[in-house]
Amino acid sequence: MKLVIDETLGDFQMEGVVIKPVNTKNGQRRIKEVIHDHESKTFSKSLDITVYNQLEEIHFFKNLSDASEIIYFYDPFYTDRNVIRRLQNWLYPQQSLVSYPIFHNRATLYMLLDKVTRYNHGSSGSIINVIEQESNTIQEWIITPDPKVFYKNRIKSIHKKKKSKPYKLLVSESGKAKIKKSGTVEELIGDILPREDIGSKTWLVHKGLSGNLPIDDHVKQHRLEDYNLPVNVPFVHIVTQPTLN
Questions:
Q1: Do the Cβ atoms of 12 and 225 come closer than 8 Å?
Q2: pLDDT per position as a tens digit, 131-145
Q3: Do residues 124 and 91 make contact, with C-beta atoms less than 8 angstroms apart?
């Protein structure tokens, strides 16, 4: 079984994970290369990223021929769900492809990657069922100076670096983001995370921040390199999940 993720969600260099590069008019490329090329285009406000068409999708997954089962965590702001559905029919029965969307929060993806590696004894279909059950029990948080970036289709945008702009704490409620308060990163993290591992588990993903974050050892964290999307937007994504007694 292979785990595949869209690179627009983050370059998660983890064992057993295949990063699906972005598509461009010049073929598949890594995000880091696309951003590097953009630096020479002074007046461009967006990255040279295009969606995969049906044939390109087939070629990518066919190249994973050593995997009879694939779990694909995709970015619905980049990858067309209808194309994925048709792709599933094209690949079957040689390959079983099941997909799961990651909408806003990179920590949700990190949590699921962490959990899936423990459930790898089951079929891809049974693992997706577990993923859906797990996702119904979590609380998602986002800390960033630019909240709209994660709830608008701005994947290609080049955002300007902003100094001394206050961070905002967003919580996901019924599929919608609500700004709870503003403050420093340290203050907002402190409002979310318990100082001890009591009654919940926590996963955290961050990008573009200097120094150490005020978190305890029980929090599982992953740092994404600065070249990950969205460009020039720092963030902390957090997922908490109640611990079953």
A1: no
A2: 888 888 899 999 999
A3: no
Q: How confident is the model at residue 104 (pLDDT cuts 50, 70, 90)?
A: confident
Residue 228, class by beta-carbon neighbours within 10 Å (0-12 exposed, 13-18 middle, 19+ buried)?
buried
Q: Are 186 and 97 in contact (CB under 8 A)?
A: no
* pTM more than 0.85: yes
Are 224 and 205 a contacting pair, CB within 8 Å? yes
Tokens of 60: 């990518």
The pLDDT of residue 101? 95
Chain Cα centroid distance, residue 21: 13
Per-residue pLDDT, 153: 65
Task: Write phi, then psi, for 194 (nearest 5 degrees).
Answer: -70, 150
Report whether CATH 2.60.290 matches the domain 139-242.
no
- What stretch(es) of the chain map to CATH 3.40.50.10170? 2-135
Q: Is the dihedral of CA 80, 84, 86, 90 positive or negative?
A: positive
- The residues of the chain that CATH labels 3.30.1180 are 139-242
**Cβ count within 10 A of residue 158:** 16
Q: Which helix (H) or strand (E) holds 126?
A: helix 124-135
Cα Rg, the chain, nearest whole Å: 18
CATH class of 2-135: alpha beta
Round to whole Å and give the CA distance between 113 and 244. 20
Q: What is the pLDDT of residues 73-82, one digit of tens each?
A: 999 999 999 9
Higher pLDDT, residue 61 or 38 = 61
Contact 7/119 with Cβ under 8 angstroms?
no
